[in-house]
Design brief:
This protein has 96 residues and is α+β, with helices and mostly antiparallel strands. It has helices spanning 63-75, 79-90, and strands spanning 26-34, 39-47, 53-60. It has a single domain (22-90), classed as Double Stranded RNA Binding Domain. The protein has a three-stranded antiparallel β-sheet. The radius of gyration is 16 Å and the shape is globular.
Length: 96
């Protein structure tokens, strides 16, 4: 018996409810493994504007340490990818 969660695939056309959302500027995929005493997060980041991809890894003994290590690894991404991803996540300031 196959678990449906293992059959993940990319969707070429977004569902109708996503059409009103802003465009995708970056993708972040993270796998988190833990044995109760240590936790490891490994993943990949893709800048959709340039197509650049890179990997990231973070380790921590607590959820807070893992989150801080993951945030630190995101700031150490190649400049163009990090800059584009952050710009896309933060958006542009709107005039009031």
């Amino acid at each position: 018996m196959t678990d449906r969660r293992d059959d993940a695939e990319l969707v070429e056309v977004p569902p109708a409810e996503l059409e009103t959302e802003p465009p995708v500027v970056a993708r972040l995929i993270v796998e988190i493994r833990s044995d109760g005493s240590r936790t490891i997060a490994r993943g990949a980041v893709e800048d959709t504007a340039t197509g650049q991809r890179t990997t990231l890894e973070a380790r921590g003994d607590s959820p807070l340490q893992l989150a801080l290590a993951l945030a630190r690894s995101l700031t150490q991404l190649p400049r163009l990818t990090a800059r584009s991803a952050v710009r896309g996540l933060l958006g542009r300031r709107r005039a009031r």
